[in-house]
Amino acid sequence: MSDAPALSETSASRPSRRRRAAPRLALLAGTGTALLALALLGPEVFDRFTINVLTRSMIYAMLAITVDLLWGFAGVLTFGQAAFFGVGAYATAMILTHVGSSPALLALALVAAVLIPAAMGWLVGWMSFYHGSTAFYATVISLLVPIVVTQLIYAGGATTGSSSGLVGYWGMDLSLDGYFRLAGVCLAAMTVAALVFVKSDAGRVLTAIRDNELRCAYLGLSPQRIKIRLTAALGAAAGFAGWLYANASGVVAPEISSFVFGTELVVWTALGGRATVLGPVLGALGIDWLSASLSGEMPFLWQLVIGALFVAMIIVLPNGLAALVTRGFGRRGGDPAMGAAPPLVEAPPAAEPGAAPLSDLSAPLLAVRDLSKSYGAHKVLQGIDLEIRPGELVSLVGPNGAGKTTLMRCLTDGDARSGGEAEIAGRSIDGLTPDRIVALGVGRKFQVASVFESLTVAECLRMARVSIDRPSPWASAETLALPAAAIEILRLTGLDRMLGAPVSLLSHGQKQSLELAMVVCLEPRLILLDEPTAGLTKTERATIGAVLRKLTAELGCAAILVEHDLDFVRDISSRIVVLHQGRLVLDGTVEAVVNSDTVREIYSGGGHA
Ligand SMILES: Nc1ncnc2c1ncn2[C@@H]1O[C@H](COP(=O)(O)OP(=O)(O)OP(=O)(O)O)[C@@H](O)[C@H]1O
């Protein structure tokens, strides 16, 4: 793919890419070096009390990074990471207490401390993110899991040590300084790995999910599956931190798996700086160390002081401590259109999507029979029969509330309709989730532009290709490889000169065009467009019309266009279908429908069923 010829490259893109890569590398190198220096030189500088406290704080900081990846980057507010940490620590302490201590048993404890929380994380993820669950439900589960784990520890008797915990077992043969250095090196490694991951293309997927889960699903991704895997992986990382903690502290107690500790982790992450990686590290190190120091010096006042400090920090540094450190790194330039972006290149055509290949081009790409949809007793769609073939541009018109958007939903979510059949390229969509229907070759553009507000134009387009080009978990692709049709949309709308611009700065029309380009990036065979020209200028409308005509007439896609602008519909459609009060009342050529008395009656307010 990288051999493909460069089709477009703004004069600013290459130099600015270098400009932006430098601060990123500086941030990585600076963070890694600072943490390694702390790990290696700390024992020479600090007293024993500080070394003791900071060893624990650094382990907590590793745990806080897992909270940040889930909450800051993927948008899943979690109080449950303490449970995975506790399970890892207890698995270690129980093996070392009840089985014995040897290098082999320490290794066994490490395996158990990672695998058990990973399996638990997968189960918790599955319960939290099953199809149809809500963010609130996931957060409630994350509160319940630490409560259940803590209760199991209390009920465990001599096996878990109940409320007294476990103490007196032999961990690794390391001195206090040795544990400090080990914790510091592990924290440095985890921080750098997390920073590399969140800046990679795979890491951007988490931000995309946080921004707009529905759009992710309609780009062929499964946010549920991704979040389940993330929960399992971060459960394993928290378990590893638990293993280190059990070794370093020589004691485990039920409090380390409690939701109170889970909540503290969230507070540290928020005060340090959510979605920054550095934030949770600074938050955990700073607040845990400060709490430990103040609690010794002011046993009755320290919580009041810490509370006042929290309030002051929220007012003075709403973006967290990390904002102080990262202020000089990676700031975007003043002109959004001149932001860094990889050069555009043409991508080779993707492999045939999952649906049966269309050997006969006259065979329907979409076949709908007797489709119906009701909300309770309210029948929104009834007896819809529709067939669409490759190359057709079918406009779906009808007054407000006729059921047009509902029909689009029923064609892109296999669970949405109440009755009837719908097939894409001969394959029933029964029970298929939107991402699986996208894999059959369907692209959907929503009525209100559905893009990713926290990303740049180029990053949005890259997300649109993730289901086709597997993203790297440690790097950002050097080029932006898109289908020729998507590149043409970008050129016609001028977005090719704004690839580095943050989406939040785009106009309404630019967002509509960007979403259309993202849908076209999927190389769909059937495109569903819900009012793509709403709010656009005449020129922008003409551009979208030209693109749609090319996609259907020249490239053989089929398209269903929901549109209120009848002049636009007349100009570009090959067929018009009229929906009225949930029924398909007309299906014919442009001339036949436009001149029909039924349409005049419907649009003049008559035509009630
Ligand atoms: N989630 C829902 N629950 C209950 N009723 C709904 C729901 N979604 C849509 N409806 C109803 O279904 C009917 C059709 O709505 P729909 O949005 O599909 O119409 P439309 O033709 O797309 O209208 P518009 O042109 O205004 O977008 C409306 O009466 C609407 O109130």
From TrEMBL:
Alphabetically ordered keywords of this record: ATP-binding, Cell membrane, Membrane, Nucleotide-binding, Transmembrane, Transmembrane helix, Transport
Topology of this chain in the membrane: Multi-pass membrane protein
Pfam families: ABC_tran (PF00005), BPD_transp_2 (PF02653)
Matching InterPro entries: AAA+_ATPase (IPR003593), ABC_AA/LPS_Transport (IPR051120), ABC_transp_permease (IPR001851), ABC_transporter-like_ATP-bd (IPR003439), LivM-like (IPR043428), P-loop_NTPase (IPR027417)
The keyword Protein biosynthesis appears for this protein: no
Subcellular localization, as worded in the UniProt entry: Cell membrane
CDD domains in the record: ABC_Mj1267_LivG_branched, TM_PBP1_LivM_like
GO MF annotations in UniProt: ATP binding; ATP hydrolysis activity; branched-chain amino acid transmembrane transporter activity
Predominant cellular place of this UniProt entry's protein: membrane
GO cellular component: plasma membrane
Domain ABC transporter, chain residue ranges per copy: 366-606
Transmembrane segments: 25-46, 58-77, 82-99, 105-124, 136-158, 178-198, 228-246, 300-325
Name of the protein described by the UniProt record: Amino acid/amide ABC transporter membrane protein 2, HAAT family /amino acid/amide ABC transporter ATP-binding protein 1, HAAT family
